[in-house]
Amino acid sequence: MNRFATQLDDYTVMINSTLDKLVPEIKTPQEKIFEAMRYSLLAGGKRIRPVLTLAVCEMFGGNISEAISFACAIEMIHTYSLIHDDLPAMDNDDFRRGVKTNHKVYGEGIAVLAGDALLNKAFEVMTSTLNENSSIDRKIKAIQVIANSAGTEGMIGGQVIDIESEGKSIDYETLRNMHALKTGALISASVIVGALIAGASQKDIEKVSVYASNLGLAFQIRDDILSEIGDSTKLGKNTGNDRERNKSTYVTVLGLDQSKAFLKKITNTAIDAVKDFGEKAEFLVELADYLLNREN
Ligand code: GRG
């Protein structure tokens, strides 16, 4: 493995083992909820968001043991959004992360609650770090950034625009805004929180924010391309659903070739934004390249 792959693997192992501990199976009358939460949370997933938090924290000289709770909380919020997004009331998907969707295994009621419980757990985990009595202001700011990115001004807002746009042809600006909120906001929060926990300056936070917003956009364009031409076995979910549901995507709005060209351009913009950090930004640069070519 090269240096990038080793670092990615180290972060992923740390994230997976911490998630496993944060959401244990507890033998109580409500044990089903722990089983359902763990089912989706530990089913795999690329862990891109928590990896970003840890990598940015380290790039700014922070200690990842301080960032890990926030990184895992973001992954819990992301997993909740996937469970809810897959429900019949939303995208009605049968497969996610290579296995049956949560509601297909546990039923819709438990799947709704598993998503809700992961969201609550995320805030329990983050606010628990305030007991440690160090860097409290930065941690409170980080919690606010995450709450905002997952809420009406972020992921939920984007999901509302998505639901309301279904079956309609939307223009490029609406599409871009929808994804900036739905997918981009939590990705940006992952990066900003890593910087906040490390105590980065406002100027540096602004620079990584430009990296993050472009990475988020690139991530979504790649997602739309894979949804159109990807391999469902590698993706661990069904493809072609966007077209079936008459959803506007980068591919339907810009076409496949233009989407690919735009993806490359936006990835380069993301990489340029962290050039000033020199060698320290090597992991972030390689991550952007890895996401550009991802197959899942
Ligand atoms: C239900 C509040 C609510 C929001 C749902 C994020 C989202 C909003 C829905 C997910 C639908 C989707 C496929 C969006 C495209 C981009 C995206 C978030 C893909 C999934 O993220 P990955 O590729 O997944 O990081 P893994 O499984 O690797 O974590």
In short:
It is built from 15 helices and two strands. The protein is mainly alpha-helical and 296 residues long.
Explain what this protein looks like in three dimensions:
- The protein has 296 residues and is an all-alpha fold.
- The chain has one domain: Farnesyl Diphosphate Synthase (Orthogonal Bundle), CATH 1.10.600.
- Helices cover 72% and strands 1% of the residues.
- The chain contains 15 helices and 2 strands.
- The protein has a two-stranded antiparallel sheet with strand order 1-2.
- Strand 1 and strand 2 form a beta hairpin.
- Helix 1 (3-22) crosses helix 3.
- The model has no long low-confidence stretch (mean pLDDT 94).
- The structure holds geranylgeranyl diphosphate.
- The site of geranylgeranyl diphosphate has 16 residues, from helix 4, helix 8, helix 9 and helix 10.
